[in-house]
Please model this.
Amino acid sequence: MRMDMMEMRSLQDGHRFPVQRETARDKVVGLLRILAYLAAGGVLVGMLRIIIR
Model:
């Protein structure tokens, strides 16, 4: 059982760095998605204003 616990810890330690990289990438992707939503919202609002006028 002790060996299994050590193996599990080593696997967790090995997975820590990729997880941090993924979270950093997720933050960048999240910001890009927010910018994309804001841009799409601005275009829709502009189209509605043109249609209303």
Residues 22-53 form one domain.
